[in-house]
Structure formats: C-alpha cells, structure tokens
Amino acid sequence: MLIDKLQKAADYGETLGATYVELRAEALNRSNTQYEDGRVRSISQRIEDGVAIRLLAGGTWGFVSSSDLSLNGLKDSVKDAYSLANSASKARKDPIKLAEIKPIQESVPLKVSRNPTDVDPKEKIAYMAKLWEETQRLDSRISAITIRQRDGIGTKCLVTNEGTQLELGFGHVHLWVWLTGKENGKITGARDESGSTAKGWEYYEDNQTPDVVAERLVDRVKKQLAGSKPKPGSFPCVLGPKVVGTLAHEALGHLAEADLTLQSAFAGKMGQEVAPKGVSMIDDGTIKGGLGTSKYDDEGVPTTRVELIKDGILNALMTDREYAYKTQLPPSGNARAEDYRYVPLIRMRNTFFERGDAFDDELFENIDFGYYCLGVAGGQAQMNASFQVGIQEAFEIVNGELGNSVTNMSISGIATEALLKIEGVGKDTFNFGAGRCGKGQEALISDGGPLIRFGAGPITFGGKA
C-alpha cells in the first residue's frame, strides 16, 4: 500500500538524522475547458500524481517533489531533501522548530454524486454553450463571453515520522465567466466566479445551472450599461458581502497570516484595538460548503475557526506549525499547498466579517450622498493595507435611498484606516463568494460577510481604467 511505502520513507529520513519528515502524495484527475463566443478554445484532461517530501534537518527545511512513488524513489527523494536541508543549515542562525500536535490516523473520503472526471466532455461543452445562448437570449447587447471551467477529484496521503497517517479525498469544480456588453459605443463587462470543493458535477445541475448564471451576469451588464460615471472623492458608503469579503481577504486577511504579519500593518498590534467595538473578522476552515473547507490542513492539523478580530481587538493570527511555535499561538490548520509541487504555506480558507446588530435598512439612513457597492471585478492589496478594488455593481445613495446605478467604478484606500471608520454592521444579509488566492501558488477560497457601512474619509471612489 502507498501509505506503508510513505511510512517507510519517513522512517528512513529519521535514520538519516532528520528531526521531522513529511511525505504528501497526491493523485488528481483534472480537466480544463475554455469556451469563447460559441466555440471551444481549449480542452484538456490529465492525471497529476506525485509526492512532496519536506523535512527538518539541522533546524532547516529541505524540500523535494517527485513523480516517482516507488519505495526506492521515495527514499532517494528523502535523501535529496535531507542533503538540501543539511547544506542550508550551516548558514542558519535560528533553528526552525515546530509546535507539537497530536498525530492522527484517519481516512476521509470525498463523496460526490457525479464525479466530474466521469462526465463526458460533450456534456461540459453543452453546458457552456447553453450559458452563452442564455446570455444572448436575455439581452441582445451581449457581445462576447469567456468561460473557463475546471474540475478534478483525487486522493491525498499524508504521512510523517511522528505517526500521522491521513488518506483524504479532495476535489473541486470551478467556473469563471466574463461577459461583455456593448451599446452605442459603450463597452462594459461583468465577472462571475463560483465553485465547490464538496460537490461534483451535480453542483452545476443543482446550484449553478446555465440560466441561473446567465441571469446573474446579464443583470450586472445591464446595470453597467445603464450606469453613470462615479463622482471622484470620498463619501460615506455601504459595502455588500462580496466587496466586504474582498477587503477581509485581500486587504486585511493577509496581514494576519503569521508569516507575513511582522512585515504588515498589523505588526505589533496583537491585543490592540483595530476596529470599533462589535466588529469581528474570522477565518474558518470548518464551514460546511465553504470553498476553503477541509477537515485537515496539509500538515495534518485539524482546521479551526480563527477569530482574527474579536469585538474590535486584533485577537489571533493564522498559523502553521512553524509559526505557531514562533508566536506561541496554537496551530490553526492554515497550512495549504496548491499541489505536491509546492511546500505548504499559511493560507486563508473562508474569511469573513461576522454579522452585526443593525438592520440593513438602518445602514443607509442619514447618508446625503454616498455609494452602495455590491459586485467586485478584481482587486489587489499591499502589506501596508493599501488596496484598490474594481466594482462591477454599484448604486448612488441619495438622501438615504438607492439612486442611479454606477458604471466602471473603483475604490481604494488603506484598509486598517477604513476598519476604524466602520459605522455599522448589518445583521440581515450575509453571503459568501468564491475566489482564488495567489501567494506564489494558488488556493481556492471563500470570502464574504454582511453589509457594512463606512464613514467618509478612508475609502476613495473613482473611475476604472
């Protein structure tokens, strides 16, 4: 059995002198399809299998990835990883140490109704063709579409010299769509992203049918085509779940990843007030149906709910075992690797603001002029908490009521300053959105929250190039 071979290779690493040995073997059957304007642009299917070997020797990491899963091949890779660590340890002053965890032996299969790899490619293409047809039927101004659908399902085996033995089923279905509309020389677009790591192809049949996705996208394009240009400047605003989620993840969440915190705007602020009382932000790897949910992370640590900001106070950080030891915080189960070719890094899973105590309608009261921002068309942030986010669905707020739709808007600011200007958090609406996070490697994530009102000052509104 593969588990037995991995265990023998882990034990071999210990005999070489490694203090910690970890082997993560993966086999994933993956497919990718891209569809543009009525035709298939590309389609592929492949099986990706291999092993990641990571070990500590001389207080330094050594890492090797390989596609050779024979016992001799595993031992050779362990030996190579040990040699790398041993060579690098000579220049290291502070040895790496790991927080202790309880070794776990468990098998956790992934059960889906329809394995996406068993679905005929013709059916996948027909889904995308139907989506394109539906958008054109709903609005004649729709001029172009790009659809990227990908899926995969497989098994991951994690074995360490400490006694951890995990066999985990994993997989995903993921849909990314960009729709373009054109009228009287005005061109605009809308982006949509959805997916699941808990369901197979049935996700598209039960939740994201072509008509549902098409209606959502066309509605956004209509609002963009009808919208007016935003007024530049700083105004009070109410941000919807998708925009709130983007801020939680991009502009704030990365600051609370322990391997980045010392270089971030959250450095030295543990236990301090970073938001008004009543504001809480969470990263949770246990939420049912979350795109970033799993029972264990890629170090074999059970995933947890991490209360990053609790009642306005910076309360916790996301950790892996190395940074849990360095910070003396508990291991939070946030170590994730894109696949066997990568080392695990501290990554977010499902990141969100908690509900507050205000009715949604109350958040708009007494705003003479401002903006209500709902949809996101991409964003970026820096470690100093500065951010810029494209908004693909927004409305003016005039005298506490929703006014005209707004097109091609962007917002920017310093997220840590914006936190302190939160004036109300809603308790009615609460949603998650699907996304992808890059940190040298990709991870599927969810983010979201309730409606949140911000005072004028820290968020600046402008047009999008």
Detailed description of the structure:
It is a single chain. Helices cover 22% and strands 40% of the residues. The chain has 465 residues and is an alpha+beta fold. α1 runs parallel beside α2. The longest helix is centred in the N-terminal third of the chain and has 19 residues, at 71-89.
Sheet with the most strands?
Answer: 9 strands, mixed
Distance between the termini: 56 Å
Mean pLDDT: 96
Number of domains: 2
Q: Characterize the overall form.
A: globular
Radius of gyration: 24 Å
By oligomeric state, this entry counts as single chain
Number of helices: 9
- As residue ranges, the low-confidence spans are none
In percent, how helical is the residue content?
A: 10-25%
What's the number of extended β-strand segments?
24
Bin the strand percentage.
Answer: 35-45%
- Helix-strand makeup class: alpha+beta
